[in-house]
Write a structure and sequence with these properties.
single chain, 402 residues, alpha/beta, TIM Barrel, Lyase, Ornithine Decarboxylase, Chain A, domain 1, 2 domains, nine-stranded mixed β-sheet, 12 helices, 18 strands, 30% helix, globular
Length: 402
Amino acid sequence: MAPTLSNEILLKAANEFSTPLYVYDEERIHFQYSKLSHAFRKSDVKIFYACKALSNINVLRILQQLGSGIDCVSLNEVQFALKAGFQSNKIIFTPNSVSIDDYKEAVDLKVNINIDNLDILQQFGNIYGNSYPVVVRINPHIMAGGNIKISTGHVDSKFGVSINQVSQILDIKKQTGVVIKGLHLHTGSEIKDLEVFINGLQLMLELSKQFDDLSVIDLGGGFKVPYKPDEKGSNVEELGAKLAEMLDAFKASTNKTFQIWFEPGKFLVSEAGYFLTKANVIKENPTRNFVGVDSGFNHLIRPMFYDAYHIITNISNPKGPVKTYNVVGNICETDTFAWDRELHEVNPGDILLFNNAGAYGFEMSSRFNSRARPAEVLVNKGQLKLIRRRETLEDLLQGQIL
């Protein structure tokens, strides 16, 4: 049974640290990591946490202690990872649209490098030759993901080298001597169909026959987590079994083996996160009931940006009569968290809980409208620990020059 935080603990957190507030359950992160590790136990699989989902250094340390690697998309994330205790060989640098200077710095830090365009591959090969093996990201022309904004492997995506340009990769390899140790793909987030991963692996196995130095196939991330009550997450146990079967068959026919890398983010932290807000006002007009809360899309942008659904509950009045509300924020633009949502009757001061807020919640927050970002709290076995203080006016002014 997956661990969850009780309403009592969450109300205690809201009372002690005020709202809006992000709360993370350390035990749930442990549970998710163990579930994933067990699913792929039959194959040589390495997990690299995609820290763009949630990069608080305390969360990074939890995953480092569990044995995870880490996937970083910026040099600052790489520095976070190093400060959290990750060894450089367990860090992947997977940037997009950065200059060769970023790659040079990543080389100095001795991390794994993932290159996603021909121009950088050419420059990198000219500079380093065969001295620094790299992974190359392939765009497989596979449409996947729960929303076009999070689909990254289709033919029109900016990510990766088109599968139709593999011959150009091989030309650069031959010309510069660059060693390509791995091939990578990532087709998107919220992938419901396991066949996306299976088809991706089959594609990578076929491509591998053209790369003599290949030892790694990186299948990215994007495992589905349930947001709505009737949804199911990715069946990672089934995927693990199919993965092992395919790798065994490939080894039997070619005598080649590969280490498989996965880069889950949301799968590891989404369900561990809770977002707490306070109802400031109840507004009733002829057509709608509104609950206005003490937050907005500056703190949780997913509903406005991706049309994402988060279960919302009134944990202050869990047995009250059910009414229908629009849950709206306090930003001076339209920021509706939920339309026509049935909630137990909400009164000013009640605490509303947003589930599945661990991934791309605080991480995508901003200071829009000059509103401070919220605090973050970690819960371990019922104990509350502040891991980021609430911002102040002084924080908002920091860096400004009069």
